[in-house]
Amino acid sequence: MPADLDDLFTALGRQADTFPLAGADGARQRGRQRRARHRAVLAGIAVLLVLTGVGVAVTRDRHAEPILPATTPSRVRGLSPVGEPLRLGDGRMWNNARISGNRVIGFSTVGDGGHETVAVDTSTGATLWRISSRATYYRGVAATTAAVILLRESNDFSKEIDDPQNRVLEFHDPATGTKRWELAHTDHDRLVLHEKVLVRMIATTGVTEAYDLVTGRRLWSVQGGADRPVLMDGMVTESDAHEYGSGNNGLFDPSTEKAFPYTDDRLVQVTGTGRVVIRDIGTGKVRSTAQAWTTALDVWERGNDSTGIDSVTAYEGTVYLTAYDDKGTQIGTPDRILYRPQEPWRWEKFFPCGRGRLCVLEFQGDREARLVMIDAATGEVLRTTGAVPGSGIASMRDDRLMMSLGGGGGTALYDPNGQAMYSDNGFGGFLDDGNVLTLTQDAGDRQYTARGVSTVDYKKSKIGILPEVSGRCDWDETVLTCPAGRELRIWRFTR
After folding, report:
1. Cβ distance 191 to 199 under 8 Å?
2. Candidates 2.40.40, 2.130.10, 2.30.30, 1.10.10; correct CATH number of 5-494?
C-alpha cells in the first residue's frame, strides 16, 4: 500500500477510540437539524471549540523533508506568506476567511452583531476595501468570484423554535465592496447558489424564483401549484469543488460552512407527490420529470415523524433521494431503491463517489466501519472495503474520496477502488486533482502542522506550521487563508 502503514493504522485506532457515534436515526436527525434554527448556532460553537486560538507563523522544520518525485498535477511542497498579517484591535478576532477570485475576504463581528468585512489581494497582501456596520446582526460571509455575500438576521427572534426567522442576503461587488442588491427571505426558504444565478424556493408557497447573481435582476418565477416543490438542489459536476455532509448550508450559516456555487445549468426539485423535476436554472423551463417511488416529506408542514423523501442530491445527471419509513432510511434514484440498511450495519452518510456510482459509509458498533460502493444504474454492490470510522465532510476529485471527519476524528483519503490510502488525525480537503491539504495538531499544543498529500502516489510532505485558528480556513489550488485570532493570514502554495 502506498501510504505509510504505521501512520494509517495508528490513526485508525485513535479515531475508533475517540469518535462519538450518533445515537439517533440519520434521517430523523437530519429532519431535526433542518427544523431547529438554533442548531446552526450550536454548530458554530462546536467548530470554534475545535478551531480557536491566536497568531499564525510558518516555520521550517530542522530536518528536511525527503525529496519527492514530480507528479502531475505538481506536488505541493511548501507555504509562502503573502504580505503582513491583517491585524484587529484588542478584544476583536477574525471569524471567517473566504476566497473570492484573487481576493481573500475576512469577516469579523463587531459589537452586538455588526460586522467588519475586508478584502485583501492574494498576490500582494494589500487591503483593497473595507466595509462595516453596527446596525444589525450579521452571521457571516460567503464568497464566489462574482459576489461577496453577507447574511444579516433580525435580532428579534421568535420564541417558537419552528417559526421562520427573517433574514437578508446582501450581495457586494468583490472589487469594491459596494452593495449591489439584497434579498429578503426566511430561514425556512431553500436557496441554491450558482456561479451566475441565485435560486430561492419560498417555503410557505413553493414559489421558485431566480435572480442574476451580479445585478439582482429576477430572471424567472414559477408558482408552486397544487403539487408544489418541497425540496431543491443544484447539480454537481465532476469538476466542481463541493462537499457532502455539511448540508450545503453555506448560505444558511456562513459562520461555519462554506458555500460552493454550482456550475451546471440544471436545477433539481422534488414535489410533495414525489415528482422529480429538472429545470434549466437560467430560464426555469422544465427539462424532464420523473416519479419517485414514494412521496416527499415537507419537514416544516408535516414534522419530522412523517415518512417520505427527506433529501435530494444530484451528481452528473443522477438524482439521489433518501426516504424515511418505519424500517429506516432508504437511498435510491427516482427509478429504484439502491440501498437499505441491513443489521448489524447502520449507515451514517452517503455521497456520489464517481459518475453513476454511490458510496455509503456504514458502521457496526463503535469501532468498525466500511464503505459500500454501489452501481447507481443497477443497484449492484461493486465492492465493500474497510473505512476509517467517523462521519464528517466528504469531497470528490478525480474518483478519489476525501473524508474530513472533524471533532478529533481525522481525515481519510480513498483511492478510486474505495481503499483507504492515507489517514491522519486532522482535517482538510482537496487542493486540486493531485493534492489534498491536511492540518493536524501533532504535538497536542495549539499548533497545526500543514501537510500536502499526493493523490498520485499518496506520499505526504510537511509544508508548514500554523497555530490554532479562530474559524474555518479556506483554500484553493493556489492560496490558503486562515482567521487566526486578531490576525488574518494568507499563504501561497509552492510547488
Report:
1. yes
2. 2.130.10
Collapsing DSSP to helix, strand or coil, 466 comes out as strand
Please report, as a single letter, which amino acid is at residue 256. Answer: T
pLDDT in tens, 152-182: 998 777 677 788 999 999 999 999 999 999 9
Please give the helix or strand (H or E) that residue 290 lies within, else none.
Answer: strand 286-291
In contact, 404 and 411? CB cutoff 8 Å: yes
Per run of 10 residues, the mean pLDDT along the chain (length 495 residues) is: 40 35 38 40 35 38 67 94 93 94 96 92 97 90 97 80 90 98 96 97 96 98 96 94 76 90 97 96 98 79 69 96 86 95 89 93 87 96 90 88 79 93 93 95 84 96 86 93 93 96
- Where do we find the cell 443497477? 378
pLDDT above 90: percentage of residues in the chain? 64
Task: Let me know: does 275 contact 288? Beta carbons within 8 Å.
Answer: no
Question: Alpha carbon of 265 to those of 58, 286, 398: distances in Å?
Answer: 41, 12, 21
Do residues 192 and 267 touch, judged by C-beta distance below 8 A? Answer: yes
Q: Order across the sheet with 218-222: list the strands.
A: 190-193, 197-201, 208-212, 218-222
Q: State whether the Cα torsion 35-38-44-48 is positive or negative.
A: negative
Please state, in angstroms and as integers, the Cα–Cα distance from residue 259 to each residue in 144, 154, 253, following that order: 8, 21, 9
Residues with Cβ within 8 Å of residue 193, at least 6 apart in sequence: 142, 144, 213, 234, 250, 251, 259, 260, 261, 262
CB 70 within 8 A of CB 456: no
Per-residue burial over 122-144, b = 16 or more CB atoms within 10 Å of its CB, e = otherwise: beebeebbebebeeebbbbbbbb
**Interior angle at CA 51, CA 45 and CA 54, nearest 5:** 115
Q: Quote the distance between the C-alpha of residue 394 and its chain's center.
A: 8
Q: What is the pLDDT of residues 304-342, one digit of tens each?
A: 556 789 999 999 999 999 998 877 889 999 999 999 988
Contacts of 128 (CB under 8 A, 6+ apart): 103, 119, 120, 121, 175, 177
**Other beta carbons less than 10 A from residue 473's beta carbon:** 24
State the DSSP string of 35-53. H-TTHHHHHHHHHHHHS--
Return the exposure string of 317-344: e unless at least 16 CB atoms fall within 10 Å of the residue's CB, then b. ebbbbbbbeeebbbbbbbbeebbebeee
pTM for this structure? Answer: 0.84
Q: Which amino acid is at 335?
A: D
Give the N- to C-terminal CA distance of the chain in Å, as an integer. Answer: 25
